[in-house]
Design brief:
- The protein is of the alpha/beta class.
- It folds into 6 domains: about 260 residues, Alpha-Beta Barrel (TIM Barrel); about 120 residues, no CATH class; about 60 residues; about 180 residues, no CATH class; about 140 residues, no CATH class; about 120 residues, Nucleic acid-binding proteins (OB fold (Dihydrolipoamide Acetyltransferase, E2P)).
- It has 44 helices and 25 strands.
- The strands form 5 sheets. A 7-stranded mixed β-sheet has the order 1-2-3-4-5-6-7.
- α2 links the parallel β2 and β3.
- α17 runs antiparallel to α18 and α17 packs antiparallel against α20.
- The longest helix is centred in the C-terminal third of the chain and has 20 residues.
- It is globular.
- The chain starts with a strand and ends with a strand.
C-alpha cells in the first residue's frame, strides 16, 4: 500500500486548494491508510485535519513545510512528541525573526531543533534541494553541500523526495536525487506533493496563486501550474507512476508506521497558581471563597447557599481545577486593584464560588441558576469563564499583565481564522478576472445586504445590478466567488481568547507576533484549542462597560456625587417606565428595532423581567415560536401551560415557555431522571456542531425516561419538541442575567445622567446599534444641549461644560475624520498649557505636527475659531490654504485687501453636508427639519405622526436611513429604520418588495417610503410598498447595517 506523506491544505493560506476535511475525506475514499498534512509555516489546520481523518479511519500525520532562508520549502514531520515540540519551536523562532506574515529558517536552526523530526528534500517545483538543483545547473558543488548538510543534521531521518507531475525538468531533478541516494546511502521516498483533492479543484489553487502574487489571470503566465497533476492520487495510480521505484512507495508505509505522535497528546498543562507559603491551592481557594462568601452574604449565611458552595468546592477540587479558578480570580483581583470594571458572564454565572470570588455579579443561589450548566463530573473539559472588560486601554492593561506574569512564551491570544465571505471573495476574485473596480464595488455593496445561497442566485443578482458582460470569464468569476467562501484567507487575532501554559507554550503550538504591538498569538482558533484540551479565558472588550466607566468618571468630575453600580436601586420606576416606552436608544441589549417593538408588549416591571427581555429577542425563542406565547401569556391573553405539573417550578418564572438552557437541563433532570452531567450532554448534543453521533441515543434516553416517570405520549412529544426547538439556539439564563445587570445600569445612567452617559457613548464608538449622529439627535430630543467642535474649547474626547444641572456636551476633536489622535491630543494640551490660539499661523507654529489635510478638515468642520469671531467654513478654508500652500515667485508681490475672500459663504444645507462629510454628525438642526414644511404640504408624515395614526392607514414617511437589518430568522424579510427630527420610524420590507426596489433600498442615505401602518403607538411599524431615494443631502452619518 501507499501513504501520502506530503499534502498542503487551504491552511497553507493562498496555496493549497482544498480544506483539511476534504483532503481527509478524499484519502478515505481512495483507501489511503495514512496521510500527512504539511501546511506552509503553520499548523493552523492541523486540529481540523486530525479530527476528521481519525473519524474516517485515516491515520493523521501532522507536520509542516518551513520556508528556508532562500524562499524555498523544506518538509518536516514529527516522529514523536519531542519532534512536534521542536517543529513548533522552529516555526516560532522563524516567525519572530521575519517581518509580519513572513518566515525564515536557517540551517543552524535545523541543527538546534532537529531531534525527533523527519526531513524530506522537498517538492520538485519549489523544494529546498530541487530548486537548488534547478538553479545550479551542472555545478553540483552547492547542491552536494546542501544534501550533505541535511544528511548530517537529520542522519537516518533524512529522505530524498521523488515526485512526478509530467514537468519537463522533473526527471532531471529525480535523476540527481537518485545519484545522491546511491552515492550517500540516503533513502528515497515518493510523494505527490498534493495541493488539492482532484483536478477540478486545481482552479482554486491557481486562483490563490494569482491572489498571492497580486497578478490577474492574463498576466499569471508561468506562475500557474502547467497541469493538474498535484491532486490526491490513488495507491494504484502512484504504483503505476513509480513502477520503476517500488521501494520509494513502500517506504511511505514504514515512515507512517514509525510515527508515534498524535494531536491527542500534545503535552498541554494549565499553570499552577502560586499560593502563599505553607498553603495548597485547594486550601487557598477555600479560604478566599469563604472570605468572599461572608462579604457577599454576611455572617448569617443561608443553609442552601453554604451547601451549594461546599458542593462546588468539592467538585472543583475533585476535578483538579483549583488552579484554573485561582488564575481567573487573580485576573479579577488585578482588575479590582487597578480600578478596572470586570464582570464574568456565560455559564460561570451559574457558580456560587465564582460569585463569592467576585468573578461574577449574579447570585446563582438566590436566582436558582443551575451549577451543572457550568461544571459536572461527566464533562471531560474545563468550564468556560468569560470576563467582560471595558474595551480599550483597560482591557489592554489586563492582557499585558498576563504576558508579564506568564512570560512571552507562557501566554498568548488565540487566533481567528479570517475566511472568505461574499464581499471579500468578490473583491479578490474580481481583481484576478479583471472585473472593473466600479463593478466589484457595486457587487460588494450588494453582498452587504444579500447572501447568495448558490451560484445561480448570485448570477441573477449580477444580471439585475451590474453592467458586466456575462462572457465565459465573468461566469467563471461568479462560480469561483461561490466556491472559495469559507476558505481560510489568513490568520487574525481573536477578540479576547487568552491561553496560558505551565511551561513554554511554543512547545505545544507555534507562536507568532500579532499585528498589534506587544501581542503574541497561537496558530489555533478557540475551537481548535478546545478540541485539543487547551484552556482559554476570554477577556472580552465590551464598549458599554467602557461607556459606563467614562460616565461615572464624568459624573464624579462635574458633581459631588459618586456612583457605585452595586448599590444603585434595582426598582427605579423611572427606569422601568422608560423601558416600557421603548425609549432605549443607547441602552445595552435593548436598543434594537426588535427590542423596541417588544418592550411595550412585555412591559418589564422588575429586574427578572429584564433577564427574560435580554434573552427573548434571540434566534432560539423566535425560531422555536416561543416569543408569541410568552408575550400573550404576559399580557393575560393566553393561559399558562406547563406541559406537566412537575415542570411548573422550572417554567413558572417564564410563564411555561422554556427560554433558557438551564431550563432544558432541569426539564431533563425532572421529567426523565437525567443526572446533571447527562442533562449537559443533551444540551451539547443539540449544539451548533450537529449532528452529534450520540444524539439519537440521548433522545431515546430522554423519551424512555419520561415514559418511566408516567408522562403520557402526547406530553412527551410536546416536551421533546420544545427541547428540540430551543436547544440549538437557547440562551443561558446566567448569561442573560449578567447582561441584564449592564442593561439596567445603562438605562439608569441614561435616565439620571444623560449628559455624562451620552458623552460616554460618543467616546467609545463604534458600539451598539446607532451612529453618533443618531445618539446626538436622540439626546437632543431628551433636552440635552450640544456644542460644536472648537479648537479653542474641545478636548480630544467629548467633554462636559457648565454646571451640574445644566451641562453642555462639547463634541471632541476625535470626530474630525482624518485628524490623527496625537495631533488632536497635542492641540488640546497646547491650548491648556499656553492659552488660546490667536490665529491660524499661531496654530501652525504651536502644533507643528499638523499637516495640510488636517488643517483643511478642521476648516471644513467649523472648528477654527479665533478670538470671539467664528470663521465661516469657506473663509477658514481660504485663510488656511493661503498659509499652507507655498506662493510661487510669480504671485509673491501680489497684494490682497484685508478680509478679501472671493468665495460665497456656506449656506445652511452646505454646512450640514460639510458636518456629515467631515465629522459624521451635526449639532445643528436635523436635515429633515429643513424640509419639514415641504413634506407636510405633500402629505408626508413624521415619525411622531405615526404614533397617533390609525392602524391600516396608508402613509408616506421620509427620513435618514440609520439601519437596515435582515435577520437570518426572518425568512428574507428586511427591516429598515428611518430617522427624522422627531424620532425613529420602523419599516418592514417583504422579500418581493426588496427584490423590486433593491438598488434604492441599498444605496439611499435618505428615503421616502410609502406603505401601510401595521402598528401605531410607541412601536409603530409600516409595511413598505414603495421606496424612493431623496438626494437633498448625500450622507447622514453611516447607517448600521446587519444581517
Amino acid at each position: 500500500m501507499y501513504c501520502e506523506l506530503h499534502t498542503n491544505s487551504a491552511f497553507s493560506f493562498l496555496h493549497g486548494g482544498s480544506l483539511p476535511e476534504d483532503l481527509a475525506a478524499a484519502a478515505a475514499a481512495r483507501e489511503i491508510k495514512a496521510m500527512a498534512q504539511l501546511d506552509r509555516d503553520n499548523v493552523s489546520g492541523a486540529v481540523r485535519f486530525h479530527l476528521e481523518a481519525k473519524k474516517l479511519g485515516v491515520k493523521p500525520i501532522i507536520g509542516a513545510e518551513v520556508t528556508m532562508y532562500d524562499g524555498t520549502f523544506l518538509p518536516l514531520i514529527p516522529l514523536n512528541l519531542t519532534g512536534y515540540q521542536n517543529l513548533c519551536r522552529l516555526i516560532t523562532v522563524a516567525k519572530n525573526r521575519a517581518p509580519k506574515g513572513e518566515h525564515m529558517v536557517r540551517l543552524d536552526d535545523l541543527e538546534r531543533y532537529n531531534e525527533g523530526l523527519i526531513c524530506f528534500s522537498g517538492s520538485t517545483d519549489d523544494g529546498f534541494i530541487a530548486t537548488n538543483i534547478r538553479c545550479s545547473g551542472r555545478d553540483t558543488f552547492l547542491q552536494t553541500q546542501l544534501v550533505e548538510r541535511l544528511s548530517e543534521i537529520f542522519k537516518d531521518r533524512f529522505y530524498l523526495e521523488l515526485q512526478r507531475h509530467l514537468r519537463r525538468d522533473e526527471e532531471h531533478i529525480n535523476r540527481v536525487l537518485m545519484d545522491f541516494s546511491f552515492a550517500r546511502n540516503i533513502p528515497l521516498v515518493a510523494t505527490n506533493g498534493v495541493t488539492y483533492t482532484d483536478p477540478y479543484t486545481r482552479e482554486i489553487a491557481d486562483l490563490f496563486t494569482c491572489i498571492r502574487n497580486g497578478v490577474n489571470i492574463s498576466n499569471a503566465g508561468r506562475l500557474l501550474s502547467i497541469n493538474a497533476e498535484r491532486y490526491l492520487k490513488t495507491p494504484t495510480q502512484m504504483r503505476h507512476l513509480f513502477r520503476d521505484f517500488p521501494k520509494a512507495l513502500e517506504i511511505t508505509n514504514d515512515i507512517a508506521g514509525a510515527i508515534d505522535f498524535s494531536m491527542d497528546h500534545i503535552g498541554y498543562t494549565f499553570p499552577d497558581y502560586e499560593v502563599p507559603e505553607g498553603e495548597t491551592m485547594p486550601g487557598f481557594l477555600r479560604r478566599i471563597t469563604r472570605k468572599g462568601m461572608y462579604e457577599r452574604y454576611g455572617r448569617s449565611l443561608p443553609r442552601k447557599v453554604a451547601d451549594q458552595i461546599k458542593k462546588e468546592l468539592d467538585m472543583i477540587e475533585k476535578l483538579e481545577l483549583c488552579g484554573y479558578f485561582l488564575v481567573v480570580w487573580d485576573i479579577v483581583d488585578f482588575c479590582r486593584r487597578h480600578d478596572i470594571m470586570a464582570q464574568g458572564r456565560g455559564s460561570a454565572a451559574n457558580s456560587a464560588v465564582c460569585f463569592c470570588l467576585g468573578i461574577t455579579a449574579v447570585d446563582p443561589a438566590t436566582s436558582d441558576l443551575l451549577f451543572e450548566r457550568f461544571l459536572s463530573e461527566e464533562r471531560n473539559e474545563c468550564p468556560d469563564i468569560d470576563l467582560d472588560l471595558p474595551s480599550g486601554d483597560d482591557r489592554e492593561l489586563v492582557i499585558q499583565y498576563l504576558y508579564q506574569k506568564y512570560g512571552e512564551r507562557g501566554a498568548a491570544m488565540t487566533a481567528n481564522v479570517i475566511t472568505y465571505r461574499q464581499r471579500s471573495a468578490i473583491r479578490e476574485v474580481g481583481k484576478v478576472f479583471q472585473v472593473p473596480e466600479a463593478e466589484t464595488g457595486k457587487l460588494s455593496k450588494l453582498a452587504s445586504h444579500f447572501r447568495a445561497k448558490h451560484d445561480g442566485e448570485f448570477l441573477e443578482r449580477v444580471k439585475e445590478n451590474s453592467e458586466m458582460e456575462l462572457d465565459r470569464r465573468a461566469l467563471k468569476f461568479i462560480e469561483l466567488v461561490g466556491r472559495i467562501q469559507s476558505y481560510p484567507r489568513h490568520l487574525g487575532q481573536h477578540s479576547g481568547g487568552m491561553i496560558v501554559f505551565k511551561g513554554l507554550l511554543d512547545h505545544v503550538v507555534p507562536l507568532e507576533p500579532a499585528s498589534m504591538e506587544g501581542r503574541v498569538i497561537v496558530q489555533w482558533d478557540k475551537e481548535d484549542c478546545a478540541d485539543v484540551g487547551i484552556i482559554k479565558v476570554d477577556l472580552l472588550g465590551l464598549g458599554m462597560l467602557a461607556a459606563i466607566r467614562d460616565t461615572i468618571n464624568l459624573v464624579e468630575k462635574h458633581s459631588d456625587e459618586t456612583i457605585d453600580l452595586a448599590k444603585i436601586p434595582k426598582d427605579d420606576p423611572v427606569v422601568y417606565k422608560t423601558l416600557q416606552k421603548a425609549d432605549t436608544v443607547g441602552m445595552f441589549q435593548v436598543e434594537s428595532r426588535a427590542q423596541m417593538s417588544s418592550l411595550p408588549k412585555t412591559m418589564p416591571e422588575k429586574f427578572y423581567d429584564l433577564v427574560v427581555q435580554v434573552a427573548i429577542i434571540r434566534p432560539g425563542p423566535i425560531v422555536g415560536q416561543m416569543y408569541g406565547p410568552y408575550v400573550r401569556r404576559r399580557r393575560g391573553e393566553e393561559e399558562v401551560d406547563y406541559m406537566d405539573p412537575r415542570l411548573k417550578p422550572i417554567l413558572k418564572k417564564t410563564l411555561g415557555v422554556p427560554l433558557f438552557q438551564e431550563q432544558l437541563l432541569q426539564i431533563a433532570m425532572t421529567a426523565a431522571d437525567f443526572s446533571g452531567g447527562e442533562a449537559e450532554q443533551l444540551r451539547r448534543a443539540f449544539g451548533f456542531k450537529r449532528p452529534d453521533k450520540k444524539l439519537p441515543q440521548i433522545i431515546e434516553r430522554l423519551m424512555s425516561g419520561m415514559k418511566k416517570k408516567g408522562i403520557n405520549k402526547a406530553t412527551r412529544d410536546k416536551i421533546a419538541k420544545a427541547v428540540d426547538s430551543f436547544a440549538i439556539y437557547g440562551f443561558p439564563e446566567s448569561h442573560s442575567a449578567s447582561f441584564a445587570l449592564i442593561t439596567y445600569a445603562s438605562a439608569f445612567l441614561k435616565c439620571h445622567y444623560l449628559a455624562a452617559f451620552t458623552a460616554g457613548l460618543l467616546n467609545n464608538q463604534p458600539m451598539g446599534f446607532y451612529s453618533p449622529a443618531t445618539l446626538i439627535k436622540d439626546a437632543e430630543r431628551h433636552g440635552q444641549r450640544f456644542a460644536p467642535i472648537d479648537i479653542q474649547k474641545s478636548e480630544y474626547l467629548c467633554s462636559l461644560e457648565g454646571e451640574k444641572d445644566d451641562l453642555v456636551l462639547r463634541i471632541g476633536l476625535m470626530y474630525v475624520k482624518g485628524l490623527r489622535k496625537e495631533v488632536g491630543l497635542r492641540i488640546a494640551e497646547e491650548r491648556k498649557r499656553n492659552g488660546p490660539f490667536a490665529h491660524i499661523q499661531d496654530l501652525l507654529r504651536r502644533v507643528p505636527q499638523i499637516n495640510k489635510r488636517e488643517i483643511r478638515r478642521l476648516s471644513l468642520s467649523g472648528a477654527l475659531r479665533f478670538g470671539k469671531e467664528k470663521l465661516d467654513r469657506r473663509e477658514a478654508l481660504w485663510i488656511s490654504e493661503k498659509e499652507i500652500q507655498p506662493v510661487g515667485p510669480l504671485l509673491k508681490k501680489v497684494t490682497e485687501k484685508p478680509g478679501q475672500m472671493p468665495l460665497p459663504l456656506m449656506g445652511e444645507i452646505e454646512e450640514l453636508h460639510s458636518d456629515f462629510a467631515v465629522t459624521g454628525l451635526t449639532v445643528s438642526e436635523h436635515p429633515m427639519a429643513l424640509i419639514r414644511d415641504v413634506l407636510k404640504r405633500k402629505g408626508i408624515s413624521s415619525s411622531e405622526d405615526l404614533k397617533t395614526t390609525k392602524k391600516g392607514t396608508p402613509v408616506s414617511v421620509a427620513g435618514a436611513v440609520i439601519c437596515r437589518q435582515r435577520p437570518g430568522t426572518a425568512s428574507g424579510v428586511l427591516f429598515i429604520s428611518l430617522e427624522d427630527e422627531q424620532g425613529i420610524s420602523n419599516f418592514i420590507v417583504m422579500p418581493d418588495m426588496f427584490d423590486r426596489f433593491r438598488k434604492t433600498i441599498i444605496e439611499s442615505s435618505y428615503m421616502l417610503i410609502k406603505g401601510v401602518l401595521e402598528n401605531n403607538g410607541v412601536s409603530a411599524m409600516v409595511k413598505g410598498m414603495y421606496f424612493e431615494k431623496m438626494s437633498f443631502i448625500e450622507v447622514y452619518g453611516e447607517s448600521h447595517d446587519f444581517h
